[in-house]
Write a structure and sequence with these properties.
The protein is α/β, with parallel strands linked by helices. It has helices at about 1-10, 40, 45-50, 50-55, 60-75, 80-90, 105-115, 115-120, 180-190, 210-215, 245-250, and strands at about 15-20, 95-100, 125, 130-135, 140-145, 165-170, 195-200, 220-225, 240. It is about 40% helix and about 15% strand. A 6-stranded parallel β-sheet has the order 3-2-1-7-8-9, with helices on both faces. The structure holds 2'-O-acetyl adenosine-5-diphosphoribose (OAD).
Length: about 250
């Protein structure tokens, strides 16, 4: 019943904003942050995902990111990523906003579209960057990282080909600003959305979580797919307590 209401709300909406978090990738084997087995249960973000941590010990931070990069590279998009990608390729008016850095939405789009040009239509707006991109700590150089990082010593860490500065992972760390253009695009999509599909996020991290509240304020029907409690449950028009890989293909059919 709830599922049918969700499918109906999403199908009727001319414009939809989809907002995803770590839970959409859980069935791909990517750990979440706050639940059982979550990264922030084992690691302290201030030791590994903060500018001060990188300043103190760039080798340690790179070691952790190199480990995550390798682990995530072995994961594959699941049924939720693929259903969203196919849906976006098949219809207009869907903006996908993700807090995830795992690139699984991008890989699903590529798989569903069969080529990079067509896949652009199903590309996510990445609010927190990408595990697979590096940026220079001194200049504006950014690159898609192709070689594995050797974090065995400070000398083997990657450096900028333009200015020689140390490279860092191109992800948003605690206390840092989100990328301005992506934030603008995400909130613009929320402001005109008639429906908002939220998948696999506790909704605890701002400003990202504000996208869902902005959509709700603009009159969007809010559908939440998450097996656990979330900060959005009170504003949800439909809450589907289910795993993303099982439920998302049913509601975006
Ligand atoms: P969390 O770890 O806070 O939340 C994960 C959510 O996924 C929880 O609500 C789970 O119930 C849900 N979940 C677990 N398995 C699921 C499944 N199979 N299907 C659907 N949902 C499932 O992760 P986020 O909310 O994404 O920020 O965390 C937000 C931000 O906090 C991250 O982007 C990261 C982190 O610090 C930065 O790195 C800047």
């Amino acid at each position: 019943m709830n599922e049918a209401a969700a499918r109906d709300a999403l199908a009727r909406a001319a414009r939809v904003v989809v907002f995803t978090g770590a839970g959409v990738s859980a069935e791909s084997g990517v750990p979440t942050f706050r639940g059982a087995g979550g990264l922030w249960r084992t690691f302290k973000p201030e030791d590994l995902a903060a500018p001060a941590a990188f300043g103190r010990d760039p080798r340690l931070v790179w070691e952790w990111y190199a480990w995550r990069r390798e682990a995530v590279a072995r994961c594959r998009p699941n049924a939720a990523h693929l259903a969203l990608a196919r849906w976006m390729l098949a219809r207009d008016g869907v903006a996908l906003v993700s807090q995830n850095v795992d690139d699984l939405h991008e890989r699903a789009a590529l798989e569903a579209a069969g080529g990079a040009e067509a896949a652009a239509r199903a590309a996510p707006i990445r609010l927190h960057g990408s595990l697979f991109h590096d940026q220079c700590t001194r200049c504006t150089y950014r690159v898609h990282a192709s070689a594995p990082v050797n974090a065995s010593s400070i000398d083997t860490l990657p450096h900028c080909p333009d200015c020689g500065g140390l490279l860092r992972p191109d992800v948003v760390w605690f206390g840092e600003m989100l990328p301005v253009r992506e934030v603008q695009r995400a909130f613009a999509a929320a402001a005109t959305a008639e429906a908002c599909l939220v998948i696999g996020t506790t909704g605890a991290v701002y400003p990202a979580a504000g996208v869902v509240h902005a959509a709700k304020s603009a009159g969007a029907r809010v559908v939440v797919v998450d097996p656990g409690p979330t900060e959005f449950d009170e504003i949800a028009d439909v809450k589907l307590c289910a795993r993303a890989g099982e439920m998302v293909p049913l509601v975006v059919a």
